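=== Structure Prediction Worksheet ===
Name of assembly: unnamed complex
Input type: mixed (protein and possibly other molecules)
Chain count: two
Listed entries:
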Amino acid sequence: MREAPAKRLSKKALPVWRITGFLESLFYLIFPVGYGITMVLFDWPLWILYLLILLWIIVALLQSFIVPAIRWRRWRYEVYEEEIDLQYGVFIIRRTLIPMIRVQHVDTEHGPIYRHYNLAAVSISTAATVHQIPALSEDIASDLRDQIAVFAQTADDDE
Amino acid sequence: MTMSNGKRLHGATVVIMLLNRLRDFIIPIIVVFFVGATGGGIGLFAMVALPLLFIFFAVYSFLYWLTYWYRAEEQELHVKQGIIVKKHRYIQRHRVQSFDMSAGILQRMFGLVKVQIETAGGGSEPDVHLIALDREEAKRLRRKLLAKPQEVERAEEDDGEPVETDDDERGEEGLIDPEEEVEASWALGFKRLLFAGMTSGGVGLVLSAVLALFSQVDVLLPEQFYESTIGLVLSATIPLLLLAVFLIALFAWLISIVITIVKYGQFTVVKRGNDLVISRGLLERKQLTLKVHRITTVRYVTGILRQPFGFTTIYVESKGGGSADEQQSTILVPLISRRDAHEVLEKFLPAFVVADRVELKPLPRRALIRYIIRAVIPILIIIVPLSIFVPFGVYGLPLLLLGLYLGWLRHRAGGVNISDDYLMLQWRLFNLNRAIIPHHRIQAADMVQSPLQRWRRLSTYSVSILSSMSGKSFEIQDIEASRGEDLLAWYSREVETPDFTREERKEKSPI
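=== Predicted Assembly ===
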């Protein structure tokens, strides 16, 4: 088997994912809160509320600490002259190959959180699919973007 | 003002649109009619709502016609439309990918044709849809849009669209082109059409429609009739009931045959140069032109009912083309025996003929349990609550056996192999699918492993290709993990391709 790709994401991906993971977990607060309201209205048992709160705490911890750590450890990429090799996933691991001749365009993008940490994501589009390498430091991301653009242009179409 | 605007559609557009709209609404109208009948509001509905609807559609159709202008210019087609919001659209001549003339029943009544023009790029709707034109006018328009351009651009494969250079008149049905040589042709023929209808497997769909209809009809029938029927049913013997069920099923089956015949009647495929022209339809002739070099995948689909008879259907995926009632694929050959399929493919798409008959590598035995679990779970989800809450629901449990069998079938059908530059995938959902995908048509390849798959040393391999509007992906689940790696390496341009003909020592490993 061919080696897993070597390059990793920026270490700063971790705080970003912790923040976004925590923000996401806030969404699940609607379950304990919703139950709390109906509980008062309909006089439902209290222990379910405690259970829901406990579950939420577990989800929040998972989302803000464990998942980001696993994801960072898994994420690998490598850009070759003829193809891009990605490996990622938290529980389900996906390995993707994108040949350069299929690349239609590359973008870098950064939202407010990324910008605060000087990070950027690189999106690679083929005619049928879009792939993203998240959380690279801005310099690496723009170099990578330019490099892919050059490789994509020079890659010979064998059709 | 009129001159600068260009031309309007044929006046009959108003009538055609109106009738089309009414046809779209006929089912809701019937439903409301029946529902209204129970509430006693039928009079009001029939007297007020229906005429209002009719007037609304009539006015809308008229205004649509009034405000729709098109004009073919030197380099582009200019379309102006919109009753309230005006929309201008310019379509570059060299961007025109297909120009389809067809005639529905309504168009035929007036001796007119419908024109659909498509360019590269997405959207489920055709870019320009001219509802009704004179045949002469449509031909003139086509000549203008598809005339040979001055400088023939070198069409780039993936984004630049090839220039259509077919500027000849096609025959009466837009079918026969005397100028270009017909290289190959294939017709379905009535016997096969009938057989295709009989084995289409559309019975279930029609059956549910028929039952829904019956459940509506009983509302209309007088109560007395209803009561006497119930009495009749209750007093009927089981053979009689079985007979009734059989008759209803037979009725549904006949309808599904008729549907197939109407849809695929007079099916022909003609190859002319780089074009595949597929025509079908008894009442409404549909004609589709596919470019051979735009076809990305060939897929054999063998229906469960057709498998015992050795018949299969050939689908193609192509950039551009593909219709909604064929899941964005295109049927190249609706019904053909597996023996002849090879020959037909050789005639129409020689590039997709896999060199020698390479056997598929089967799935490992340890994947069987995963296939069975996947097939049984959806049945369990339905059966378990049913057997708890519904009397006699327990009788649904034998369906589990069906799930087991299906899982076993799916596992047995699954297979994958490489032959030179082709990937062959075979899988079954219900129908047996076998896809032949050339290496250079694959947009990206993935190998996926879930934790459980890692434990069993299995993997799922998938490839994306270009289909009608966007991408489509084909995957095979639970192949040997090492095989997934090999397939990924085969796709890679950086790594040496592994030897797929070597024998499997891994296959014999324990577990």
